[in-house]
Design a protein that fits this description.
Shape: flat
Number of domains: 3
Number of helices: 10
Order of helices and strands: HHHHEHHHHEEEEEEHHE
Radius of gyration: 24 Å
Strand content: 5-15%
Strand order of the largest sheet: 1-8
Largest sheet: 2 strands, antiparallel
Number of strands: 8
């Protein structure tokens, strides 16, 4: 009597393979992924020839971050729309390849603001999906209304922006880099110039600031040098603007039972178990 051998247990693909399979499921997003990867690989090769370590590092980091949408889909059990997948990959490419390697941050003053607004938009989308997961989970004992769900998504996005500003500050502090870009001002108000040290003194039309070091080196600036505060606050306000845009779309989507096509095209869909 012959005994049938037990069927071999099917092994589940590893995380990297599953993420790649997730990317390939959407033809349009996969086509965009292939084009961006080809450009990024070319940037890495050129950077290697030029012995540009920063370009190589940003290139490899970009290739890794292209898997971010698929990673989030796998770990959070959500399904991103084609538009959101493409926006996320374009954001990574614009920040790392165009911004850092292509020096777009220096060439175009609006580039940093544009990416921060998009950053706030994207993280509000992911925050929205996270709260939706909690709303639908049987293990969670509360359910948020559309308004508070949108509010939490907005706050989640802004919190990510704050953490990033912390990262920039401590990176500048430890490595003496300039991630928090300096700003030249022509008007300041400070209590340091008042007799009591508290009453703000307004100084207008500043035309020059002279910086002298202990070893006698001097630096002249056409205005007052603000080292990071203005840039940080501007970035956070732009992050908030992007988060509010998406949170408003998400609120309307829930409030009116998903009637808005724009919302359906952007809001991550929670996968059912």
């Amino acid at each position: 009597m012959k005994h049938n051998k037990p069927a071999a247990r099917e092994r589940r693909p590893n995380l990297f393979r599953r993420m790649f399979q997730t990317i390939r499921e959407n033809r349009v997003a996969f086509a965009v992924y292939c084009v961006l990867c080809a450009i990024t690989v070319a940037v890495i090769v050129v950077s290697a020839i030029q012995k540009n370590r920063t370009g190589c590092f940003n290139g490899f980091l970009t290739l890794l971050l292209f898997f971010l949408p698929a990673f989030l889909e796998e770990k959070l059990r959500i399904r991103l729309s084609t538009a959101l997948e493409i926006i996320t990959m374009l954001f990574v490419f614009a920040a790392e390849i165009l911004g850092e390697v292509g020096k777009f941050y220096a060439r175009f003053p609006f580039w940093d603001d544009l990416l921060h607004c998009l950053n706030g938009f994207l993280f509000a989308a992911f925050g929205f999906a996270l709260v939706e997961i909690c709303n639908r989970s049987k293990k969670v004992a509360f359910e948020l209304s559309p308004f508070f769900l949108a509010l939490v998504a907005c706050c989640f996005s802004l919190s990510i922006g704050v953490v990033w500003e912390f990262f920039e500050y401590f990176t500048d502090l430890l490595t003496r880099s300039d991630m928090q870009k300096d700003t030249i001002l022509t008007l300041i108000s400070s209590g340091k110039f008042s007799p009591d040290g508290q009453t703000p003194v307004v100084i207008r039309d500043i035309t020059e600031t002279l910086i002298t070091t202990a070893d006698g080196q001097t630096y002249t600036i056409n205005g007052y040098l603000d080292t990071g505060l203005t840039d940080t606050m501007k970035d956070l306000m732009v992050d908030l603007a992007g988060a509010l845009i998406f949170s408003t779309i998400g609120y309307l989507h829930l409030k009116f039972s998903g009637r808005y096509r724009l919302a359906k095209a952007l809001i991550p869909e929670v996968q059912h178990e």
